[in-house]
Amino acid sequence: MRVAVVGTGYVGLVTAVGLAELGHDVACIDIDERKVAALNRGEPPIFERGLEPLLRRNLGTRLGATTDLASAVQASDMTFICVGTPSRPDGSIDVSYVHQASEQIGAALATTTGFHAVVVKSTVVPGTSDGVVRPACERASGKRAGVDFGVGVNPEFLTEGQAVDDFLRPDRIVIGGDSRTVGLLRDLYAGFEGVPMVQTNAPTAEMIKYASNAMLATAISFANEIANLGSAIGGIDATEVMRGVHLSRYLTTTLEDGSSVTAPLSSFYEAGCGYGGSCLPKDVAALAARGREAGSPLMLLEAVADINDRQPARLIGTLGRELGTLQGRRITVLGLAFKPDTDDVRSSPAFPVIRLLREAGANVTAHDPVVGPEVLDGMGEVTYVADLADAVKQADAIVIVTRWDQYRRLPELIGQLDPPPLVVDGRRMLDKTSVPSYTGVGL
User: Fold this and answer.
1) Calpha distance 216→343 (Å, rounded)
2) CB 64 within 8 A of CB 28
3) Which stretches of 154-198 are DSSP H helices?
4) In sequence order, which residues have a C-beta less than 8 Å from that of residue 269 and are 6 or more positions away?
5) Please, which residues bridge with residue 262 across strands?
6) For the whole model, what pTM was predicted?
7) Are residues 303 and 261 in the same domain?
8) Residue 167 is part of a domain; what is its CATH number?
9) Which residues form the catalytic set?
């Protein structure tokens, strides 16, 4: 199938490369000429494990990039909208980029013949495809949705750091829209034999995406609430609490051969310094805002977001109690990306942690194995050190924010230091007996 993908961020580029790998002919569309040129050289603008090899393998045969939206849309059977939906101050999403893309796609379709499917993959609140995309395409094209062109929804379920694998080995495919668009989407994904497919209407498909992310965010905040209560009571290790919870038959299944399998969901039921990234914070806020707009407030999700926002301050509070004062102390923050195996720093807990440390008068050093020092612009006097050993050797305390595998070397590195620094484990990734001085979330 011939496919156009509008937007080359995490979702758009992974979708385009993944579809090309499946054998479809794909055109990536972006307004940034430099980004398009880089893509056509085989240089992805983002770091995502496994993305660059697939980009280079398909480039020039089944995959290319262009700034010419009209030509790409007119030469395709289906167009995916993968543009950004940024948050407004009240938590609601700004769909102006979706509206603009819809108008441009509609204008391109004005002179075409044959049925064309317009599919929304951007994360949008329920009602957006029917209330924004459909009328914008109709006005610009002069054609009728459901007759001359179709409108559908195909939400993504990509986890940054493993997005390529998630696309090529999906756990589900959700499609919604008019019957002809749904039929084309079924054909597009025909290669995924055995993968469950949910076929529904557009607003239900939009809600499935939000409900999925809200569930994950709720799990994280629940684990952090339990951890915070355990810390207040004393004598409770939240990691051991959650290990006991994970063994519930709801999360761990015993197989016929006697072995057991723990559901991946259990990884979200772990105490930490909060969730971040481009999805969970924004999606929880957007769904809560949509609830307020609809007159059905989502009190649970409001609480989930509030708990998450408070976690960095709790981490700094633990550090302050251990050191007595943060004024003039040398603190190394490990991890700037919101999670390992990605360079995405959006809503990363590292930034409120660094800000709070600076406000308390600490001297802050930062390290990340992938993210560079440019993300610290505007953070004040923060020293970026590229070498992990150098980053920790002068520290009074080390704060782990991101669960990078490289940080498992800390016990070895700290063993060479005298006196050893305090380790404040914001991800509970280290054995609490592996370093001389250790504390962490929920301990």
Assistant:
1) 21
2) yes
3) 163-168, 179-188
4) 219, 220, 222, 223, 242, 245, 246, 251
5) 252
6) 0.91
7) yes
8) 3.40.50.720
9) 279
